[in-house]
Specification:
7-stranded mixed β-sheet; 3-stranded antiparallel β-sheet; globular
Length: 392
């Protein structure tokens, strides 16, 4: 329990406000109901329809964002002995997908203003074993892709963009999905749109798209252009060891209905971010995330960093105080290499000083389409109240 709660102060809110929440309307329910009444619950027409989600020339739907990362790494040819550079400030799946393929994750540090992977740190980690870079659009903001793509071209590396947070974001006028060699998406409920679960991989390359499709569909194909022989319309071949990462028509119908609201979802998220920025930019006890130059961002998360030098508390005490105010703050993310599993692989603290400093001071505030203006005002009031209470 926080000091504020111990002192018996009345919380800012009487009811709990989560940090994220899906928005489902009658149109979404109707779209799913129509599929439930149709002939195809999976492997049907809705799967093909969803493949137009973004600017990528080719799209493969998969069962979740982790499956998207895994199949992207497989398609990129990541294997035993290969190194892939990524950020530690991400959900563990960004690094785990490398391990699934037998590769080795190499963690590069972040920029302390944007919280995304720092191009200079990427370059410092490149060795003769480096095969690819997984750049993560953390909070929904595009990374510095001018610099990162230049590094990848010079060193002959594939670029995988983890866009789980950034559907709707564009970088210098190009929508995510068309920037990297391979781009992965997630449709988890707290993301900008949801399919319940679900994900996708986009690419401009026909060859990479075919590899992703094979990996996601058991390694099996009926494509006559790929078959080694043809015995009839019933014939198919397994050409590699793949996985069952199919997305159902039920989920695709929900995602398609949600996509019709993407512009509205994006506009509301941008409005909420603007109001947060205005409220907090002059508050000396916190740091506001800076935008990457060229990123037209649809923010998935709103993260503040606490200036602990100005506060008589640590992040845990501030977090607990916010919870006592009925504000569902969260922390994104624990550096991946802090986890016991990665420590067992030989990772040690101290690898990425900026990422570690970020983790000690970060706090995620509520941000979702269904938030009311009053909900947001409650969050702002709670942050300012607690900052004043703990101010040195």
């Amino acid at each position: 329990m926080s000091d504020l709660a111990l002192h018996g102060g009345k919380p800012v809110r009487e009811t709990w406000l989560p940090y994220g929440h899906q928005y489902i309307d009658e149109g979404d329910i109707q779209a799913v109901t129509e599929v439930l009444r149709s002939d195809f619950l999976t492997c049907g027409p809705k799967v093909s329809e969803l493949c137009g989600i973004t600017g990528g020339a080719r799209c493969v739907t998969v069962s979740n964002g982790t499956a998207a990362l895994h199949t992207a790494c497989r398609a990129a040819g990541i294997g035993l002995g290969d190194e892939v550079i990524t950020t530690p400030i991400t959900f563990a799946a960004s690094a785990n997908a490398i391990l699934y393929c037998g590769g080795t994750p190499v963690f590069a540090d972040i920029d302390l203003q944007t919280y995304t992977i720092a191009p200079r740190s990427i370059e410092e980690r490149i060795t003769e074993k480096t095969r690819a870079v997984i750049a993560v659009d953390f909070t929904g903001q595009a990374c510095d892709y001018d610099a990162i793509r230049s590094i990848c071209r010079r060193h002959g590396l594939l670029l995988i963009e983890d866009a789980a947070h950034s559907l709707g974001t564009a970088y210098r006028g190009t929508p995510v999905g068309s920037i990297a060699d391979l781009t992965t998406f997630s449709f988890h409920p707290v993301k900008t749109i949801t399919a319940g679960e679900g994900g996708a991989v986009t690419t401009q390359s026909a060859e990479l798209a075919q590899r992703v499709l094979l990996c996601a569909r058991h390694g099996i194909t009926r494509d006559v252009a790929l078959l080694q022989k043809q015995e009839g319309n019933w014939y198919y071949e397994q050409q590699l060891l793949g996985y069952n990462y199919r997305l159902t028509d039920i989920q695709c119908a929900l995602a398609l209905s949600q996509l019709e609201k993407l512009d509205a979802f994006s506009a509301r998220r941008r409005e909420l971010v603007r109001r947060y920025d205005e409220a907090f930019r002059e508050l000396p006890e916190v740091f506001v995330q800076e935008e990457t130059a060229g990123s037209d961002t649809v923010r998935h998360l709103y993260v503040l960093r606490l200036d602990l030098s100005r506060l008589r508390c640590d992040r845990r005490e501030f977090y607990d105080a916010m919870q006592a105010e009925n504000i569902g703050v969260n922390v994104h993310y624990i550096p991946v290499y802090y986890f016991p599993y990665y420590q067992g692989l030989g990772c040690r603290r101290g690898l990425c000083p900026n990422a570690e400093a970020y983790y000690e001071s970060c706090l995620t505030l509520p941000l979702f389409y269904g938030m009311t203006d009053q909900d947001q005002q409650d969050v702002i009031e709670a942050v300012k109240k607690i900052a004043a209470y703990y101010r040195k």
